[in-house]
Amino acid sequence: MSARDAILARLKANRPAGEFPLPDVPTFAPLVGEDWVTEFAERLGKMGGRVERAGSPADPFAPVRSRLSGAAVIASAVPEFAGNRDLAAITGPTEVNDVDVAIVRARFGVAETGSVLFTQDDLIVNAVAYLAQHLIVLLDPADIVVNIQAAYQRPEFGQASYAVLHTGPSATADIEGVLIHGAQGVRSLTVLMLPRKKRAA
Amino acid sequence: MSADDLTPRQTEDVLHPEVRAPSDESERGPGGDRLQHAEAASKPIRADAPREPQPRGAKVRGNRPIDQAEAAERFLAAPLHQKAHDERLWDVRRKRDVAAHGIPEWEELRELASQIKTHTLTHLDHYLEQFEAAARANGVHVHWAEDGADHNRIVLDILRKHGAKSLVKSKSMLTEECGFRHFMAAHDIDVIETDLGERIQQLDEEEPSHVVMPAVHKTRLDVADVFARTLGTDPDNDDAHYLAESQRETTRPLILKADAGLTGCNFAIAETGTVVTCTNEGNADLSGNVPPLQIHSIGIEKIIPKVEHLGVFIRLLSRSALGSPITQYTSHFRGPRPGTEMHMVLVDNGRSERLAMEEFWTSLKCIRCGACMNTCPVYRRSGGLSYGATYSGPIGLIIDPTFNKRKYSTLPFSSTMNGSCTNVCPVKINIHEQIFAWRKVLAEEHQIPLLKQGMMKAAGAVLSRPAAYRAAIQTADSALRVLPRFAVYNPANTWGKKREMPQAPRQSFHAWYRQNRMKKGTEA
């Protein structure tokens, strides 16, 4: 008998007696106020991330200008900013190891936790969200959902081959509880609140 | 950026311009306040400066019963380590309470999590088949492993087919169970742990001492020693930022040239075939997204039916583990990247047999948050390595004997039975009741030492007769009041160490009741 069949047979034979129905999960009342953008910013701040409002339409990236001007290699996955490393031309993930700043757009944000979600389509090269030194995330305030429960109603989790919630930068406190940003992945995560460009009809 | 101005960084004498200097240790939020997310302590908990050799774990001698008390004695004999460990875990436990109390529906979430797990475990054959079908439809290669050896062989086969010689991995208690690193070392596969705590433990050739914080028993001085020895860092520099950065810079090249990546699994979703990992470092995402070959090892009890159920478990996991609302990264791996292969290995390793154990099968609900360990007075004062087993602390006491009844026969006795573990468990496992049930099973099967058998017999005789119990309580209480300190705090009484005995009440409740209530004729 194959391992598969043996395991399944044992699970059937050893099933505990009794009825154990799957419970319905109720919709819980949100724990955040009505201003989701403010709630999102406050909670992401506590997780080590930062939120900036976009600058003027002429220069929406003004609030993160100092980060960008100090960067030699910028990989942009968004049409709003032209970097100097073309992610579409990358043939292997290790090629983005020298990226200083990656700019990506989040599918949505979560007010309850300050999280943002990316799929493989948003990142173009998944690894860039970890190998880059810093991450700048564009988020349309209209794309914020209220809580984690609402987030898991979104279709991405059933469709994307890779979907990830980022809540602040890479962090560790494995040495005596001392909090350190940039454990293995990005050293900082900054969310820039910038509405999506309306598609031409 | 504007917020940087609030907390200007010292930029001289640091390894990387972004790394904090020793004099400026805490990461700070936009308002300049000290951050406490991930596994960060709420206040600096720094072991005192004098060097104290790190106490090592239990002596493991083949199949012989682990002497946890002996290893605990040695941990207690290292007061700097013991104090830092105790304080650190209690701090995490307090953060957990604050996080739990912040959610009005916390108890309802625990009940839901328990019911979802119970339902899934009693229909696990169905959900595993559903998971397998979904994963195959996503283009994933699915494998089934009877036990740890089977798992290791399957992974080795995959690696050999691809000519892979090196593998980066994220933390996985399942691979610890399987003895994965030792097996791969014997087959010339270079395995590199990418979680900082786990990497420290790998470099020090120790097992993880905690399911969430593998190196929590080590002080920064210990880490400085290990890194000086293995990574060539400055032995006199024990700055946590310097040490963490040194690890980052030495691990990154290994991640880049790894032939394969492996992660564990926190939740596996039956309806979508998804593997979910929760990390703070993003190291599971590096392991899964950088190497050209991707493997996920899954304990079969990790299955949950639907994506919507993550809305329950994700809210419970990190709050229970660290008091943090969510881990920095919650990652959902469902299908391979273009041009690469993704493998998932479903591992039984005793789980299907445990399902048949009437009193113990609900331990399979465990989501490995470590809350029971953080709250346990025995664990906090003895360290995870004193258990000499993959799983330590209260959950270890009830899981370990299912792997080896003889070797772990003494572990269920390493408990004060205070029930705190049960109260903090996010999936409502009756941990302390199972600890007691294991004591009975092991006594009946003569798996426990003679001294403890005698104590159990006496306790059984006393507990079964109320009058004898009352007499015994009276004696015990008055003995506590009159015995000199050396009689209570002597080396034969392990739990007297580092604890003050409670003040014995002058009168037992029963005696008080008889005196004050029964004579008034209120008793029926």
UniProtKB/TrEMBL annotation, chain A:
UniProt-listed InterPro entries: FTHF_cligase-like_sf (IPR024185), LUD_dom (IPR003741), NagB/RpiA_transferase-like (IPR037171)
Limits of the LUD domain: 96-193
One family name in Pfam for this protein: LUD_dom
SUPFAM superfamilies referenced in this protein's UniProt entry, alphabetically: NagB/RpiA/CoA transferase-like
PANTHER family hit by this protein: LACTATE UTILIZATION PROTEIN C (PTHR43682:SF1)
Full protein name: L-lactate dehydrogenase complex protein LldG
TrEMBL record, chain B:
Source species, domain of life: Bacteria
Gene Ontology terms describing biological process: lactate metabolic process
UniProt GO MF annotations: 4 iron, 4 sulfur cluster binding; metal ion binding
Descriptive protein name: L-lactate dehydrogenase complex protein LldF
Organism: Methylorubrum thiocyanatum
Annotated segments matching region Disordered: 1-63
Bias (Basic and acidic residues) ranges: 1-37, 45-54
Keywords for the protein's UniProt record, in alphabetical order: 4Fe-4S, Electron transport, Iron, Iron-sulfur, Metal-binding, Repeat, Transport
Record-annotated 4Fe-4S ferredoxin-type domain positions: 357-378
Metal-binding as UniProt keyword: yes
InterPro entries: 4Fe4S_Fe-S-bd, 4Fe4S_Fe_S_CS, FTHF_cligase-like_sf, Helical_ferredxn, LUD_dom, LutB/LldF, LutB_C, NagB/RpiA_transferase-like
